């Protein structure tokens, strides 16, 4: 029994140690895939809120502390595979929220929650041509997540 417990603890430690954070994945893609990264904070979001003309979106943006958008335009097969393989490493560090496919288009949403509050959201989108990763940190109530990720914020067209 002691050996089994030791083995389980060792495996858990190895999995935790190997899990990459969103920041690590962003830095890796920025360096290796020459991705464009736009970082933002609460103040920058506050400046943009009045321009949305969407009260429910403005309310949810107030729950976000900071984040970034990573973009690889005209990724091609090689960069797209690198993007998908690198972002797949987030699956061990974050909980899956939803994954959707539409032909070659793919959207994956991951999160890290503490109780009824989501502290981190990672949105990964690959439409075959461009790859995008959006990362938010903050205190987002779980029941408000639909306002952040909906047809107005993610659209395949």
Q: What would you note in describing this structure?
A:
This protein has 157 residues and is α+β, with helices and mostly antiparallel strands. Helices cover 38% and strands 34% of the residues. Strands 1-2-6-5-4-3 form a six-stranded antiparallel sheet. Helix 2 runs antiparallel to helix 5 (76-88). The chain is globular. It starts with a helix and ends in a 9-residue tail after the last helix.
Q: Unreliable stretches, pLDDT < 50, 5 or more residues?
A: 1-17
Instruction: Count every beta strand, where a strand is a DSSP E run of 2 or more residues.
Output: 6
Beta-strand percentage range: 25-35%
Structural class by SSE content: alpha+beta
- Pattern of helices and strands: HHEHHEHEEEEH
Strand order of the largest sheet: 1-2-6-5-4-3
pLDDT averaged over residues = 81
Radius of gyration: 17 Å
| Main beta sheet strand tally, sense and closure | 6 strands, antiparallel
The coarse overall form would be: globular
Query: Between the first and last Cα atoms, what is the distance in angstroms?
Result: 56 Å
Helix content: 25-40%
Q: In DSSP terms, counting alpha (H) and pi (I) runs of 4 or more, how many helices?
A: 6
């Amino acid at each position: 029994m002691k050996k089994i417990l030791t083995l389980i603890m060792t495996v858990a430690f190895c999995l935790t140690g190997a899990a990459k954070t969103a920041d690590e994945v962003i830095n890796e893609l920025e360096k290796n895939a020459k991705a464009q990264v736009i970082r933002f904070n609460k103040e920058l979001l506050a400046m943009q809120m009045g321009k949305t003309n969407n009260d429910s979106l403005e309310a949810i943006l107030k729950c976000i502390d900071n984040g970034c958008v990573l973009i690889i335009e005209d990724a091609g097969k090689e960069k797209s595979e690198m993007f998908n393989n690198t972002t797949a490493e987030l699956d061990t560090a974050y909980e899956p929220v939803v994954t959707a496919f539409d032909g070659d288009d793919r959207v994956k949403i991951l999160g890290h929650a503490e109780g009824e509050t989501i502290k981190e959201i990672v949105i990964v989108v690959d439409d075959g041509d461009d790859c995008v990763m959006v990362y938010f940190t903050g205190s987002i109530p779980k029941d408000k997540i639909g306002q952040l990720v909906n047809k107005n914020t993610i659209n395949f067209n």
